[in-house]
């Protein structure tokens, strides 16, 4: 059972719910391989079955999905919901991958039930979704953007009989920019429902961000006591000069190519470039990012989940809520914008530690010590040797120079990295004015930094002092460095958004 060695299992068995939960649901749970409830399930299911609204914090791998789905299934089953009644239970998830994962669990749970279910999310056929909604979808799993679209534009979407609202990873939904969509969704949905549950990995975050879904009768449950991390997880960081970062990453991945590894980057373009580069130099890797077509993302996600070994490069799209089994290493190649996001990425290793295997989280950037101290981390520095640095660096530079497609991909990835650095939440640590662009450019295979379109504000539009003002274009060093231009001011807009949803 997932979570055995993490201490998340309770002494309560699912068969203790006989007479309260239908035989159909208990039979489905047993077929899924579960006999004992986890702590979050034992604490929430009885309250939810009584119709009490809840705000709960639970780490990934704790069984929270079943904790909120079982009461929802029981509610609609007792009400004898039929397709003509429309949508009775709605689950809102921040990302497509989490929505698909929740939908998969719901499919298994409804094996012996008569209610219909559906999944709506961006990247899929809207018309096909509208046709299914018109026929009646009792259980609906959705991402915020596509859900709002159907609420506003699909006239045959029946949701007036909504009985249960579940918001999963609530704080994450707001973090990735869906606050306005959520406000509109809550205004469009019926003002009263029988059951509501708001779930997150952080109790204080969800309690503060989604007060609008709470009622006076809402119960709060902090299963983690503010610590949604994984017991037994080893964490460490490597202090690495900017120009050696890729070489260290390559050495590390080559050494651990027979393990299951996830590597996080700050932008889609950086994931794309490193995916192309590593595969080109015969180090097979997979990738997931927001600019991929949904079919590709789905295939890659399940391929990595089912694999015993493999390397997955990804952006924050996979950072929260996903329950990916048996991950040996998580590498934070770029820092997340908010130090608290480390928790979401830590949670990906929960099953590895559950199986008594070694789970590792490794931070991989030059300012790691300062960054981690800002998040109140207590972890150790790790030593790691970079092999064949001079020859490997020269090979990378020659490859990027001669290969047109890799050159263009590297240039866009470099620009995205600098923009992400400039927009980082912790300006006191990640200050683009002090960033050594020549060192950074070398990690992307350039001897001279490419130019970057970057909104720098009126106070920064003057020539920069220090390192960042000394470098020219990718064509070669500027003869007159004082006249070199690294940044070009551009209007502020969505084009600088790091992640594509």
UniProtKB/TrEMBL annotation:
User: Which top-level group of life is the source organism from?
Assistant: Eukaryota
Which Pfam family is one of those matched by this entry?
Helicase_C
What Gene Ontology terms for biological process does this UniProt record contain?
Answer: maturation of LSU-rRNA from tricistronic rRNA transcript (SSU-rRNA, 5.8S rRNA, LSU-rRNA)
For the keyword RNA-binding, the answer is yes
Show where the Helicase C-terminal domain sits. 232-397
Q: Which GO terms describe its molecular function?
A: ATP binding; hydrolase activity; RNA binding; RNA helicase activity
Q: Any domain commentary?
A: The Q motif is unique to and characteristic of the DEAD box family of RNA helicases and controls ATP binding and hydrolysis.
User: What is the recorded function of this protein according to its Swiss-Prot or TrEMBL entry?
Assistant: RNA helicase.
User: So what family is this one in?
Assistant: Belongs to the DEAD box helicase family. DDX18/HAS1 subfamily.
Please identify the protein, giving its name as recorded.
ATP-dependent RNA helicase
Source organism per entry reads Ixodes scapularis (Black-legged tick)
| Organism phylogeny | Eukaryota, Metazoa, Ecdysozoa, Arthropoda, Chelicerata
């Amino acid at each position: 059972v997932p979570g055995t060695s993490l201490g998340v299992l309770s002494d309560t068995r699912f068969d203790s719910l006989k007479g309260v939960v239908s035989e159909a649901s208990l039979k489905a749970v047993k077929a899924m391989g579960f006999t004992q409830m986890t702590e979050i399930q034992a604490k929430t299911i009885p309250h939810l079955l009584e119709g009490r609204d809840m705000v709960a914090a639970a780490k990934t791998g704790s069984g929270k999905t079943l904790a909120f789905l079982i009461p929802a299934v029981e509610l609609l089953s007792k009400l004898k919901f039929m397709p003509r009644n429309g949508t009775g239970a709605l689950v809102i998830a921040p990302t497509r991958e989490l929505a698909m994962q929740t939908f998969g669990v719901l499919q298994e749970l409804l094996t012996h039930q008569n209610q219909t279910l559906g999944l709506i999310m961006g990247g899929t056929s809207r018309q096909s979704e509208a046709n299914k909604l018109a026929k009646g979808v009792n259980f609906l799993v959705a991402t915020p953007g596509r859900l709002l679209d159907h609420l506003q534009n699909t006239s045959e979407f029946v949701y007036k009989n909504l009985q249960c609202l579940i918001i999963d990873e609530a704080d994450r939904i707001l973090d990735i920019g869906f606050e306005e969509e959520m406000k509109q969704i809550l205004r469009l949905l019926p003002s009263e429902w029988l059951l509501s549950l708001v779930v997150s990995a952080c109790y204080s975050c969800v309690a503060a961000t989604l007060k609008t879904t709470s009622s006076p009768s809402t119960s709060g449950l902090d299963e983690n006591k503010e610590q949604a991390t994984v017991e037994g997880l080893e964490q460490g960081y490597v202090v690495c000069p900017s120009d050696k970062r890729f070489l260290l990453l390559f050495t590390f991945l080559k050494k651990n190519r027979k393990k299951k590894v996830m590597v996080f980057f700050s932008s889609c373009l950086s994931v794309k470039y490193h995916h192309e580069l590593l595969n080109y130099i015969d180090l097979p890797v997979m990738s997931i990012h927001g600019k991929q077509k949904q079919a590709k993302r789905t295939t890659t996600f399940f391929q990595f989940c089912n694999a015993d070994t493999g390397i997955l490069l990804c952006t924050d799209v996979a950072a929260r809520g996903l329950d990916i089994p048996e991950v040996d290493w998580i590498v934070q190649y770029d820092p997340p914008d908010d130090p608290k996001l480390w928790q979401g990425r830590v949670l990906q290793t929960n099953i590895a530690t559950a199986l008594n295997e070694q789970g590792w989280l490794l931070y991989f950037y030059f300012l790691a010590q300062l960054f981690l101290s800002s998040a109140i981390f207590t972890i150790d520095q790790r030593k790691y040797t970079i092999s064949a640095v001079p020859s490997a660096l020269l090979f990378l530079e020659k490859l990027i120079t001669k290969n047109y497609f890799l050159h263009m991909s590297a240039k866009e990835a470099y620009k995205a990295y600098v923009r992400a650095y400039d927009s980082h939440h912790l300006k006191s640590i990640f200050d683009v004015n002090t960033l050594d662009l020549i060192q950074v450019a070398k990690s992307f295979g350039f001897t001279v930094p490419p130019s970057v379109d970057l909104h720098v504000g009126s106070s920064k539009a003057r020539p920069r002092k220090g390192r960042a003002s000394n470098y020219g274009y990718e064509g070669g060093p500027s003869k007159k460095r004082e006249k070199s231009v690294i940044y070009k001011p551009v209007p502020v807009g969505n084009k600088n958004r790091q992640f594509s949803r």
